[in-house]
Amino acid sequence: MERVCLTLLIHQPFNNSGRNALFFSQLLETFSWGILFSHPRDFTPVCTTELGRAAKLAPEFAKKNVKMIALSVDSVEDHLAWSKDINAYNGQEPTEKLPFPIIDDKNRDLAILLGMLDPAEKDEKGMPVTARVVFIFGPDKKLKLSILYPATTGRNFDEILRVITSLQLTAEKRVATPVDWKVKMLKGQIPSSPSRPKGPVSKWLSSGSFLLGALF
Ligand code: BEZ
After folding, report:
1. Are 102 and 149 part of one and the same domain?
2. Distance in Å, CA 42 to ligand 1 centroid
3. Ligand 1 neighbour 40 (Cβ under 6 A)
4. CA 133, CA 202: separation in Å to the nearest integer?
5. CA distance 109 to 51
């Protein structure tokens, strides 16, 4: 059976062997929270919709103090040319400028190191391309969350923003967020740890933390 090995584990720091890996770890040092999101190939339809959406949501990521970094196995020249398509898709001037960098990982330094390759999707040379991976790093430069989508399934960037809100909240307070949780459920009512929330759907967990419910 074929196995994919994800070498970066949750709550683990980033391992910086390799040229791009070193570049990425240096980049990580320059910001607080960070998201690394890979896509299979430049100039493909689903990837264009995803990076267009990511570009539109860049102000929301900035508000959360999250540095955005994209990556694929294409060259810088391709990234720049494709950025024009992405901006045009968003109804904007077709310039080469996007609100985030796209790493040129054509040597697959980072893709191999971080288990980002999709063995089912190959380039014209028969080499696997990157899957749609999401890695979110915290201020301590450790991985806080990873989501892995195949090339054939586009991501939901609202969900990515939602999990970042939860990650940042749960990093600050001793709480856990329940199924389908959204921040508007508890706007202005985030209890300060360790006091217990008063709402009927709050629940202490055996770990000592509590769930935040919709009715606080
Ligand atoms: C796309 O972005 O459209 C795509 C890329 C790789 C495989 C399938 C779809």
Report:
1. yes
2. 9
3. yes
4. 33
5. 22
Cβ of 175 closer than 6 Å to ligand 1, yes or no, is: no
Residue to substitute in 38, 42, 44 for testing ligand 1 pocket (most ligand atoms within 8 angstroms of CB):
44
176 bridge partner residues: 211
Mean pLDDT check: name the lowest of 8-17, 82-91, 191-200.
Answer: 191-200
Claim to verify: residue 49 and residue 142 sit in the same structural domain: yes
Residue 73 near ligand 1, beta carbon < 6 Å: no
Q: Would you say the CB of residue 191 lies under 6 angstroms from ligand 1?
A: no
121 CA distance to ligand 1 middle (Å): 9
Residue 63 has pLDDT above 80, yes or no: yes
Distance CA 110, CA 95 (A): 27
* Of 197, 194, 170, 200, residue with least CA distance to 183: 170
The CATH number for 30's domain is: 3.40.30.10
User: Residue 108: which domain range?
Assistant: 19-155
In a domain, 160, yes or no: no
Please tell me the residue having the least CA distance from ligand 1 atom 6.
151
pTM score over 0.85: no
Please check whether residues 121 and 179 belong to one and the same domain. Answer: no
With a cut of 90, say whether residue 87 has pLDDT above it: yes
Higher pLDDT, 178 or 101: 101
User: Same domain, yes or no, for 195 and 124?
Assistant: no
Look at the alpha carbons of 192, 139, 86, 95 in this order and tell me if their dihedral is positive or negative.
Answer: positive
Total domains in the chain come to 2
